[in-house]
Amino acid sequence: MSMTAKEIRQAFLDFFASKGHQIVPSAPIVVKNDPTLMFTNAGMNQFKDLFLGEAPIKYPRVADTQRCLRVSGKHNDLEEVGIDTYHHTMFEMLGNWSFGDYFKKEAIAWSWELLTDVLKLDKDRLYVTVFEGDEKEGLPMDQDAYDFWKAFVPESRILKGNKKDNFWEMGDTGPCGPCSEIHFDNRSDEERAKVDGATLVNADDPQVIEIWNNVFMEFNRLKDGSLKKLPAQHVDTGMGFERLVRVIQGKTSNYDSDVFTPIIDFISKSAGIPYNAAATPDDKDWGQAVAMRVMADHIRAIAFAIADGQLPSNNKAGYVIRRILRRAVRYAYQYLGFKEPFLNKLVPLLAAQFKGVFDELISQQDFVQKVILEEENSFLRTLENGINRFEKYIQDNQDRQIDGAFAFELYDTYGFPIDLTELMAREKGLTVDMAGFDTELQKQKERSRAATAIDAGDWITVNEDDEVEFVGYDEVVATSRILKYRKVKAKGKEQYQLVLDVTPFYAESGGQVGDSGVLENENESIIINDTKKENGLIIHFADVLPHNLNATFIAKVNVHTRRLTENNHSATHLLHAALKAVLGDHVNQKGSLVNADVLRFDFSHFSKVTEQEIAKIEAIVNQKVRENIPLKEERNVPYQKALESGVTALFGEKYGDYVRVITFDDSYSKELCGGTHVKATGQIGYFKIVSESAVAAGVRRIEAITADKAEEYINNQAQLLAVLKELLKNPKDLTKSVESLLEENNKLKKEIEKSVLEKASVLKDVLKSKVTVVNDVNLIAEEIDLSNAEAIKNLAYQLKDIVDNLFLVLGANIDGKPNLTVMISDNLVKEKGLDAGKIIRELAKEINGGGGGQPFYATAGGKNPEGLKSALEKAIIYLK
Ligand code: ATP
Ligand code: MG
């Protein structure tokens, strides 16, 4: 029996630990603080600052397993997934790193030792590649890597590769360098004898696949496309865990290894359809096999993205997740007959599988499952609406070809992938205008590119200094110099970003907005609009650059705004603890926003927070405010120690080895937090919840205010009450007074109704006496004094009951608006073909209005009461 997936992962980590590597946890799959990246797409992402020399190196050797997602940006494998057997949306990347420590020689030797000695892969089946060089970039062939490999691998299996395969780049800009890949040939011996494996490397053969890439980071790709040498040389490796497991277990597909078989089995059993791993596109069970792979794969991406805090939504990263989920639901619906939500049922299986590896999932299993269930429900409804829309289109259009714009509507509004539309069209003997569809798609892509494009220039160094010091926890003023700056353009607006050597400005993070303020000296004053973080770097936004970049500045934070923001931030902590106390321990933070005006807190909870619960929560928080609890701020607490002391840590947050702990009363609120806070809770003044609502399935939102805003709110409420009291002539008991007002109002209403009824009954007799006979028809055409439409209707029905052969036209003035009613006996409708609906439309012209109804009864309203008379006179012509 070969090793299990679990054992293989552990063997990797143990091996590198034995070579002096620190084993670190995976970063969350959802990336914050990096505008160039939505999701972690490689193990190196979390170390980007280290490569660029922007953060200090703690451990020169590190290894881990990183959950990665390749569904957007430079690395996007989504369309391949499920069709092939070795590209996933989410996969684990096993990696080892050297930050300015060892280089090519050790990296190559260790990767060989691990694969062949420890994991016992067949040496004959391994091929390696090295960079052949690139003239345009001015880069030579990687002779060093070639020579190091020669010690282990015959030269016939060391292949030279071009820039596309052997020069790794994270994105359009950023760290990069030549790389050396390791490929595995999994074909049968006969096939291998027939065709030389070397010819199949990097040629998309599903049995000759890349398993490991060793990148030798040497450069930073700049905005203008040029390469700049990094301050030091690094090793960055990434091995696809699922591919490694598959080759060790001797399988021809990743989905046949024990990483995926439990899930594939469950899907297949639930669908009642066997999984045919060997199906090819020509087989009729191909679609079913792809569908099972898509579901087994996508559930991983969806579940981990949600666990790391990215809910499906309508824009940006949330939309990417929504689309992945919809792709899976659509396959399940179309090929496996899952018409009801099913994907969410895979979550417990997955959570159990990753227990002890990525515990994020098991600890939030219910929440993740619920979110997926709701998404499935709503998409299945959309899907059904889309199918109806499609059927209607086919009925309304006789063309043999489906319009490209319509196919795009199905794609864009109903989430139909184009191949689904094509398939549905084919079933009806139709085709789809693909060129038209592509044009629409292209147009949309351009629209969204234009909307989100951020054009960032390269950094221009002003002063050399690696370390940036943030002093904003203790100071709001500092003496600063500019280290570097760059120009950025977003949505047509140009701005400058500045990096300072010392800064009191808090950069937006953890929900707290960035500081604003000024940089000033005796010669000039530059306004800082905002402060943000990119990776680790604190960036200050300004509309203009100082004339003298080299000058020394006094950096001043806008203190008033900062203090109000701090009130709201500390109140958020008090609220979080109160929510847990009142609602239960399942409450987890799912998002927060803290600025000078308001605090907004999203949290997992499955039902509406009741008014009583809100009152309890407010009471607890205000109690804590009045206790004036001093802030306890501890910096540089070892992460493990902080956890043991019972702090609240957030999912989807990447914590370092040392963390900052914010405590308000050891037994009440203890959170890991990088934000700024009040010195004591009394500063918060007063806490008031102003709204409670739902944001997504299983996620509630509370908005609250504090201090000045809370005071303003309460004053407004008091003022409102004062105005009301005055209106009611200052009663002793306001509630009672309003109640009796309502009661009186009801009584009056009833009395009016009664008198209207009485009036109508008198009118009935009067009208009956006004019948004139025209051509055997009993005509009544009168203006009446009744100002209630319901009463007029009743009257008309009563007259119909007591007068035969009736043609009734009533005019009335209801509060200044003319109203017409026509009622015709049923026999006249039948025999004479009279139609009240048609007649009333004609009569309504006289009162500048319109109306309609049935052949026997119709009403109209209008604007001109003067016209009532002529309308009534006109009625008679219908009887002649
Ligand atoms: P490929 O050419 O097969 O797409 P790649 O060149 O994109 O691979 P790298 O960016 O070098 O891969 O990533 C390092 C390793 O991660 C690869 O050697 C492979 O084992 C694994 N890997 C890359 N993309 C995926 C994916 N979509 N699913 C699973 N594993 C992957
Ligand atoms: Mg790739």
UniProtKB/TrEMBL annotation:
It comes from the Bacteria. GO terms for molecular function: alanine-tRNA ligase activity; aminoacyl-tRNA deacylase activity; ATP binding; tRNA binding; zinc ion binding. Its cofactor is Zn(2+). Signal peptide: none annotated. Keywords: Aminoacyl-tRNA synthetase, ATP-binding, Coiled coil, Cytoplasm, Ligase, Metal-binding, Nucleotide-binding, Protein biosynthesis, RNA-binding, tRNA-binding, Zinc. One of its GO terms (biological process) is alanyl-tRNA aminoacylation. Residues 3-716 form the Alanyl-transfer RNA synthetases family profile domain. It is found in: Cytoplasm. Zn(2+) binds at residues 569, 573, 673, 677. InterPro entries: aa-tRNA-synth_II/BPL/LPL (IPR045864), Ala-tRNA-lgiase_IIc (IPR002318), Ala-tRNA-ligase_IIc_anticod-bd (IPR018162), Ala-tRNA-synth_IIc_core (IPR018165), Ala-tRNA-synth_IIc_N (IPR018164), Ala-tRNA_ligase (IPR050058), Ala_tRNA_ligase_euk/bac (IPR023033), DHHA1_dom (IPR003156). Transmembrane segments: none annotated. CDD domains: AlaRS_core. Binds 1 zinc ion per subunit. It is an enzyme of class 6 (ligase). It catalyses: tRNA(Ala) + L-alanine + ATP = L-alanyl-tRNA(Ala) + AMP + diphosphate. One of its GO terms (cellular component) is cytoplasm. Its main location: cytoplasm. Residues 710-758 form a coiled coil. Its EC number is 6.1.1.7. Catalyzes the attachment of alanine to tRNA(Ala) in a two-step reaction: alanine is first activated by ATP to form Ala-AMP and then transferred to the acceptor end of tRNA(Ala). Also edits incorrectly charged Ser-tRNA(Ala) and Gly-tRNA(Ala) via its editing domain. HAMAP family: Ala_tRNA_synth_B. Consists of three domains; the N-terminal catalytic domain, the editing domain and the C-terminal C-Ala domain. The editing domain removes incorrectly charged amino acids, while the C-Ala domain, along with tRNA(Ala), serves as a bridge to cooperatively bring together the editing and aminoacylation centers thus stimulating deacylation of misacylated tRNAs. Belongs to the class-II aminoacyl-tRNA synthetase family. This is Alanine--tRNA ligase. The lineage of its organism: Bacteria, Pseudomonadati, Bacteroidota, Sphingobacteriia, Sphingobacteriales.
